[in-house]
Amino acid sequence: MFVRLVMSLVAISGLAACSSTPGLDRNSQVVAVAETLPAPDANEVTAGLSEYRLGPSDEIEIAVFNAPELERKGQIDAAGNILLPLIGSVAAGGMTPIELADQIADQLRGRYIRDPQVSVNVLKARAHTVTVDGAVEKPGIYPISGPMTLQRAIATAEGLSKVADTDKVIIFRRVDGQKMAAMFDLNEIRSGRVDDPQIFGNDIVVVGESGVRRFLSEANGVPLLSRFIPIL
Predict the structure, then answer these.
(1) Phi, psi torsion values for 187, nearest 5 degrees
(2) Which distant-in-sequence residues (6+ apart) come within 8 Å of 216 by Cβ?
(3) Which CA distances in Å does 41 have to 46, 83, 177, 201, 202?
(4) Which DSSP string do the residues of 114-153 spell out, in sequence order?
(5) Per-residue pLDDT of the chain (232 residues; tens, 9 = 90+)
(6) CA distances (Å), 198 to each of 71, 190, 205, in order?
């Protein structure tokens, strides 16, 4: 029984020394590791919005090839519409830029232009997205509709899971074309000892997983030592 107890303690100590999300490699050739992350520039924030669903207050630019008089820059109104020359009010809310371009082209085709080529670009997005992954209750991609911090991003994903490692939370961000990453300790943030970092559009948050908590969780919450020390 003593041997089994020692083996159990060794197993726990081994799990405590590691987690499924190891420390960031400062020699990485893929990610630039930093203590803090600078804010991305405007181009980085609006990048990758081809699948973004447009909504009120989004600022977009609409252009029609060889028809500069139809070019339009403006905000989508509260009802999700935008006013365009010739065709009037167009429902843009809920559409991707490509879907809106196709709809505008359909309304112009034949009536005003034989074969319109329309492009829609997002100049300023109301709701960027953040990806929250790892040891949270509901990993996924979430919209950013206002100021957001790391704690708020995790709360949006319904909080930490039971196996979360609170001192290994990584934010990935692209800055000036380079992928950067920094690790944060939620305990330090919650205590007020360090600032709660701001989250920007296209950020990726990964919450690490504690090996010990995963092991105990898979044991259905029964303390490990009780499996090896019988009650006499």
Answers:
(1) -65, -40
(2) 223, 224
(3) 9, 29, 9, 11, 12
(4) SS--EEEEEEE-S-EEEEEEESBSS-EEEEE-S--BHHHH
(5) 544 444 443 444 444 444 444 566 666 655 777 777 888 866 666 555 666 788 888 899 999 999 999 999 999 998 999 999 888 999 998 888 999 999 999 999 988 888 999 999 988 877 678 899 999 999 988 878 678 999 999 999 999 999 999 999 999 998 887 889 999 999 999 999 999 999 988 899 999 987 655 555 555 554 444 333 333 3
(6) 35, 14, 11
Pairing of strands 178-184, 128-134: unpaired
Q: Is the pTM for the entire model greater than 0.70? A: no
